[in-house]
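Box 3.1 A note on notation
Throughout this textbook, protein chains are presented in two layers. The first layer is the amino acid sequence; the second is a token string describing backbone geometry. Keep the layers aligned when reading.
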Amino acid sequence: TKILPIRILGPDGGSSFNVAQGIVYAVEHGAKVINMSIGSTGPSSAVENACLYGYDNDVILVAAAGNDNSGLRYPAKYSETFAVGAVRYDWQRAYYSNYGPELDFVAPGGDITVDQNGDSYGDGVLSTSWSIDSGNGYFYMQGTSMAAPHVAGVIALMISNGLTGVEEIRDILKSTARDLGDFGFDNYYGYGLIDAYSAVTYSDGWEPLMVYNTDTMWNVDSVSVVNPDGSYNLQVNLASSYVFVWQDFDHDDDIGYGDLYGYYGYSGGDPDDDYPSTVSVTAGGETEANFEFGVYIDQTYKPVENFDKVIEKKEQIIKEHYQEIR
């Protein structure tokens, strides 16, 4: 792994054109990950096009969200980037960290106004910088500019470990991040706090075997996961329902060709050749429902509504899996 330092700002700052030139230069000289601890309040077509150029060439662009406790700055606001906010030592959002629907992740950014780790220093991130009194040196600093390089460094390790693809790596970071704030994605923490170990050691291909029930109109009621021994516990809210099992073999969050799929009443062969049988349970009671599953072949018939409920649970299970093996 090599570092390619590119200077785009001078003593008096710089222009959007300078930023765009720096991105293009990095892409054309073999960069795989670009860290951008910079920000602007307004968009720039030159920078946006440069980010798109990087994205189209499979280069990951990591950008600081900004330090105004407001909406994200550019270029972090562009969808081609990985937008990074900041958390403190206690994993709470730093008071300055920008937020919004474009935020992807958070990482340590510091808060020099507090000393939560008790080392007699403000909780900044030790960073290289320069001052008139000391010249070049290490200083405790804070900001999303400190958070973004944490993510860029993790991504560099992931790539060196054989993981590739901009969106593939984004998905792995989503799956392994530690969920903070509201459950799932939220505007203040994105998909959560980056988890370096889980991301770098990610074993591509692991998918849980999900089990869920629906009413007779295919609306999902409850969702759970099948245990390694084949057992499951599904708390249903319906007197009678259909029970399904599904494993997302191709990781596309959709029931599709090649996935493992089945239901109570399935008797083998193409799962679409049979029809689910009803499982009934009395209020406060329980029942046992054993069934088989097979490889999904025919894609013309997929009985399910509000499937997002299953996907959300699947993402939660994947996160818990990687945090458990951490």
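The chain has six helices and twelve strands. The chain has a mean pLDDT of 90.
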